[in-house]
Amino acid sequence: MGMLNEETRQRALDALEVLDTPPDERVDRITRLAQQIFNVPMVSVNLLDRDRQWRKSEIGIGVQEVPRADAFCEATIQQSGALVIEDATKEDAWASNPFVVGDPHLRFYAGHALAAPCGEHVGTLCLLDTKPRTLDEGERRLLQDLATWVQTELAQQQELDHAAVVQRALNPRELPQPAGFTVTAGSAPAGGVSGDFHDVRLRDGTLRVTLADVMGKGVGAGIIASAVRASLRTAPDRSLPTTVSEIDAILEHDIGDLNMFVTLFSAEIDALTGQVSYVDAGHSLSFIHRADGAWEHLNSTGLPLAMGMGEPHGVGSAQLNPGDALMSCSDGLLDLLDLEDPFGQVDEILEAYGMDGAVDEALRRAVAVKAADDVTVVVVRRKS
Questions:
Q1: Is the CB of residue 281 less than 8 Å from the CB of residue 264?
Q2: pTM over cut 0.85
Q3: 161 pLDDT band (50/70/90 cuts)?
Q4: b/e map of 192-212 (b: 16 or more CB within 10 Å)?
Q5: Fewest C-beta in 10 Å: which of 6, 24, 222, 267?
Q6: What is the pLDDT at residue 169?
Q7: Element (DSSP H or E) covering residue 170
Q8: Which residues, 6 or more positions from 360, have their beta carbon under 8 angstroms from its beta carbon?
Q9: What is the rounded CA–CA span in Å between residue 210 and residue 328?
Q10: Domains parsed from the chain with CATH numbers
Q11: Residues 6 or more apart in contact with residue 130 via CB below 8 angstroms
């Protein structure tokens, strides 16, 4: 492989951003399957870095990286098909290899190159044994299929990581803090990309707070969440009911036949008086925590978006007095609470961490237990 090709190959490997990352269960699953299918003691998914061979996944080897110069996989990435060495001690090119004459005393090797999205060979899936053996044409095709599966998983993870970075960039970078109020918010996606989002804007003395939850999770839900967020941001002079109505019509037209829907809570808070006007499109997970400890539920004012009912959403109202807090969350938070006494559990968290620290604690717990659904929380507290 020429210098130019090697430089291109290395750039493709670096772009995957997989080197030195933690184990990935999706790749480990393929490694286990390969071992079971081929009945070999050692299987490895390797990435060939500048001067080393680093293992993303392995069974039976126990060493995560070795010098690239002596690796069998160096020869594998030079060709398009599988490299099969039935007995390395009988082939002049490999008989003196340190992995043959020394630990683990390899005899059999079968490897297939892993390609980056643009075709550069960045690694291998290989089968290893300390005994000679053969690989027929059907088994070679199966090895190729498993290698294709591995490279698809590696590329998909890169795409998910990029999508997650873009989505995080769309979240409010700095939450507005109008005089007399404290705003805290955050999200913890169940996977790389979230179907929840939150948005907080301050304009002409009015704080608009929105939390939306797309049915489902993952990339599809994330795409729809981004579309809703973009619609909220356009034409900022629109009234809240008009904004929600127009988003509802757009979603019904675009995804109405996909049987997906979006629950949404959006509120406008007068930063001078604490008066709250809100639209709740089937979300029903917003509350006011009063200064005296009482909880007040903000009722839904209409059905979720994209359900095609065609009825305008009503507008609810409430009042934030000094010491009160408006709290809204996605339904993923319910998985973290004792549903027999959720308010009591939240009160305990508020007592331990304070109103402003409760959001961080909720997100920390979501990450710690690897919550099955996206978790988003927004709190607007009017200072005493």
A1: yes
A2: no
A3: low
A4: bbbbbbbbbbbeeebbbbbbb
A5: 6
A6: 61
A7: helix 137-170
A8: 184, 186, 353
A9: 9
A10: 3-164 (3.30.450.40), 172-382 (3.60.40.10)
A11: 41, 104, 105, 106, 107, 108
- From 263, 309, 256, select the one nearest 283 (Cα to Cα): 263
Mutual orientation of helices 137-170 and 3-16 as an angle, nearest 10°?
60
Neighbours of 167 (CB within 10 A): 21
Q: Residue 374: left (phi > 0), alpha (psi -120 to 50), or beta?
A: beta
144: left (phi over 0), alpha (psi -120 to 50) or beta: alpha
Contact indicator for 207, 216 with CB cutoff of 8 Å: no
pLDDT digits (tens, 9 = 90+) for 162-183: 555 555 666 777 899 999 999 9
Please identify which residue in the block is written with the tokens 């920390």. Answer: 364
Q: For the beta carbon of residue 180, count every other beta carbon within 10 angstroms.
A: 14
For the chain, the farthest-separated pair of C-alpha atoms sits apart, in whole angstroms, at 87
Residue 352 identity (one-letter amino acid): A
Both tokens assigned to 18: 């997989």
- CA pair distance 377, 329, nearest whole angstrom: 4
The answer, yes or no, to whether residue 123 has pLDDT greater than 50, is: yes
235-to-114, 206, 340 alpha-carbon distances in Å: 48, 15, 43
- For 275-301, write each residue's pLDDT tens digit: 999 999 999 999 999 999 999 999 999
Kindly state the tokens that stand for 279: 């639209």
Cα 307 from Cα 258, distance rounded (Å):
10
d(CA 305, CA 256): 9
Are 86 and 95 in contact, with CB atoms under 8 Å apart?
A: no
Higher pLDDT, 231 or 139: 139
Dihedral sign from CA coordinates of 85, 89, 90, 93: positive
